[in-house]
Amino acid sequence: MGGDIPLIILTQNTPLADSRAIAQGLRIEHDRFLDHVTAYQHEIERRCGMVRFEIAESEYYALLTEDQALIYLSYSPQVRAKTYKQILGRAFARAYDQLAPVEEDETDIITWTHFLALWHTLLGEKPLHATELEQHLRTSAPFASTLPYPLDSAFLLPQSAFFAIRLGRALGKWKNIPLGPRGWMIQQERDTHSKSFCWYVVTTK
After folding, report:
1. End-to-end Cα spacing for the chain
2. By the 8 A CB rule, do 5 and 18 touch?
3. Distance CA 54, CA 35 (A)
4. Rounded Cα gap, residues 158 and 160, in angstroms
5. What is the pLDDT along the chain (205 residues), one digit of tens a residue?
6. Dist CA 113 CA 173 (whole Å)
């Protein structure tokens, strides 16, 4: 394997991480990381969907979703794995930011309106971290049932450790957009203690 390989590639507007680039980042042989991928493949596929494998110039490699890649790194015994998770997370965040914008259709607007309306009814205008909002969703089946696509399917993955990350990104895309008869709108503020973002819903009508 010669030269640097891009860490993230876009396939059908979906960011995927190249196992060869991850191996380079961990400073290990690719075959060693690929053995790690196949060793946990059954469990990862049960939790996060099928692992995609490709072959190029007689080299076998994997293209991993963000959840798959982060979980593999969580299982990795490599010293650099913990630090590299942060690098990988930032790389995926940049890739998502660069995706071509997709116009929301009427179904998206309706489902997000229902979600925000119930959020405001249940939780008022209290700022919450994405992890705190996730906990409310996990303790209220009616609230969770209003999750818009694709958050609804991600929420159902067994022990999805990265749902809060996806939730935060989705909220960021829909912030400051008034929806529905009362103009429910997502707002964002920075928590000065944790230096992370909090989210809440207000009415504008």
Report:
1. 59
2. yes
3. 15
4. 6
5. 556 789 999 887 789 999 999 999 999 999 999 999 999 999 888 888 899 999 988 889 999 998 889 889 988 888 888 889 888 888 888 887 777 555 567 888 999 999 999 999 999 999 999 999 999 999 999 999 999 988 888 787 655 557 888 898 889 889 999 999 999 999 999 888 877 889 999 999 9
6. 14
Contacts of 104 (CB under 8 A, 6+ apart): 112
Q: Is the dihedral of CA 18, 149, 161, 124 positive or negative?
A: positive
Cα radius of gyration (the chain): 19
